[in-house]
Design a protein that fits this description.
Helices cover about 35% and strands about 20% of the residues. The chain is an alpha/beta fold. A nine-stranded mixed beta sheet has the order 16-15-14-13-7-12-11-8-18, sandwiched between helices. A seven-stranded mixed beta sheet has the order 3-2-1-4-5-6-17, with helices on both faces. The protein starts with 10 loop residues before the first strand and ends in a 10-residue tail after the last helix. About 40% of the residues are buried. The chain binds 6-O-phosphono-beta-D-glucopyranose. 6-O-phosphono-beta-D-glucopyranose binds next to loops.
Length: about 500
């Protein structure tokens, strides 16, 4: 099977925070891959913008290094890399003082070309940058702005950020990135649900027992202390990635794949989430923080030992039992968990169907397990449908639980693009289907805020867990109390 690359119109891509971590690890490598795939039309330009005083050549050198470090060696083609670097230039900009915006305006000129302003900067700068874009008349009708999470740290601050952006850009120009929506298997979830007649009749509380969504990481804090310690896992992962996954599992069939058709359905799910009140937070949520332990075969420090001041109450793990109060899902738990320094790096969604009502097989046949649909987002993307079969061969009727296994890497000989590659090209195309609308972000905060409030009011401490395990014991208790267990993810 071959992949198809559909070229996009020429565009100017302005990376604010162009020398930062995101540009280095994700944006420049993603843009290089799209160059190599032949997706750009001429003249397409990429302009780095940040406070550092660099020249164009310095920036090209920065990009060359970023790409060499973050793209697999066998995917680097010298000629394409040179062609890519030739598109790059740099403008030194100070978002606060406004210095440099005139130079940016001069570089962009008055061409009607598509402009992508990518905010790979701290959210505190979004407002200043937008105001400067307005002052210098850079937000043309063809412009789009891309904002990364976190969009605020609660509902009120998210509204402020959205207001600041909304003063300069119309909603159809605003692309709020949740990179999980760009992952191949996440989109496959929509194909699985809406391009097959098989699952949809069963996709409801009559046939599904519960849903589990796990996003487990092995990494710890990395170099993100100043951001992460103020955010914590609930804001960093649940408010966005996990809730978006939950929406895709739970939403009704949209009228089409049009951006607003999909986003309307996701919004309804977010608005139907049962609020977690102060009195229930202790029962329905678990906070954890990793302690020293072992990861990937080596000893690792505990979270607080990684901090300069050696103390913090920030959670690095969250588990939540969520419910959706609507006709399709009432009474069906959605167990969510995410954390750093866990036993494995794995993201997956498990749909567990109801058990059979009655077994006709005798005890000797063994246990009859419930069917599970396991959608593995990473690594080893694929889908497994667990079913019961007769154990092959003689020996009477013995039952066995086996997966119908569809590993994408084994089944398709196609390079799996990084989420950012797809998302950045969607921005250029003006397709917002995989981006969050303002009301979605705010509805997600509306559900998260009371949990944050309850933790604060009740001083719900983060339970310690040893690095390299599956999180605090409270997370196991959260699901086992209901007579269920976390799916073994490795
Ligand atoms: C980011 C979070 O949004 O997602 C990080 O800020 C996290 O803390 C990352 O590590 C996980 O992304 P991925 O694609 O590696 O699963």
């Amino acid at each position: 099977m071959t992949s198809q690359t559909i070229p996009v119109e020429p565009f100017d891509f302005i990376a604010f925070g162009g020398t930062g971590d995101l540009a280095e690890r994700k944006l420049l490598p993603a843009l290089y891959q799209r160059q190599k795939a032949g997706q750009f039309s001429e003249p397409t330009r990429i302009i780095g913008a940040s406070r550092s005083k660099l020249g164009d050549e310095d920036y090209r050198e920065f990009a060359r290094k970023a790409i060499t470090e973050h793209v697999r060696a066998d995917e680097i083609d010298g000629t394409e890399l040179d062609a890519f670097l030739a598109r790059l230039s740099y403008v030194a900009i100070d978002a606060k003082s406004g210095d440099g915006f005139e130079a940016l305006a001069a570089t962009l000129g008055d061409s009607p070309r598509i402009r992508v302003f990518y905010m790979a900067v701290a959210p505190a700068l979004f407002g200043d940058i937008c105001a400067n874009l307005k002052t210098h008349a850079l937000a043309t009708p063809q412009a789009r702005i891309v904002v990364e999470k976190p969009i605020g740290r609660d509902l009120a601050s998210a509204r402020d950020v959205n207001d600041a952006i909304g003063q300069v850009f119309e909603e159809h120009q605003v692309f709020r990135i949740d990179h999980y929506l760009g992952k191949e298997t996440v989109q496959n979830l929509m194909a699985l649900r809406f391009a097959n007649a098989l699952y949809e009749p069963l996709w409801n509380s009559a046939h599904i027992d519960h849903v589990q969504i796990t996003v487990a990481e092995m990494v710890g804090l990395e170099d993100r202390v100043s951001y992460y310690d103020k955010a914590g896992a609930l804001r960093d992962m649940v408010q966005n990635h996990l809730l978006q996954l939950l929406c895709l599992v739970a939403m009704e069939v949209p009228a089409s794949m049009e951006a607003d058709a999909v986003r309307d359905e996701k919004l309804k799910v977010l608005r139907s989430l049962t609020p977690i009140r102060d009195t229930e937070a202790g029962k329905l949520t678990v906070r954890g923080q990793y302690r020293a332990g072992a990861s990937a075969g080596g000893a690792v420090k505990g979270y607080v030992e990684e901090l300069a001041n050696g103390s913090s109450t920030t959670e690095t793990f969250v588990a939540i039992k969520a419910e959706i109060a609507n006709w399709r899902w009432a009474g069906i738990p959605f167990y969510l968990r995410t954390g750093k320094r866990l036993a494995a790096r794995v993201s997956e969604i498990v749909i567990e169907f109801k058990p059979i009502p009655h077994s006709i097989f005798g005890e000797g046949a063994g246990e009859v397990f419930a069917n599970q649909l396991v959608i593995r987002l990473q690594p080893d993307e694929g889908v497994k449908q667990w079913i019961m079969i007769k154990d092959p061969g003689p020996g009477g009727m013995r039952l066995r639980h086996v997966p119908l296994d569809m590993s994408f890497a084994e089944s398709f000989d196609v390079r799996n693009p990084d989420a950012y590659e797809r998302l950045v090209m969607d921005v250029v195309r003006g397709n917002q289907t995989l981006f969050m609308r303002r009301d979605e972000v705010e509805a997600a905060w509306k559900w998260i805020d009371p949990i944050l409030g309850a933790w604060e009011d009740s001083h719900q401490d983060a339970q310690g867990y040893t690095a390299g395990t599956w999180g605090p014991s409270g997370s196991i208790a959260l699901i086992e109390r209901d007579g269920r267990t976390w799916h073994e993810s490795v």
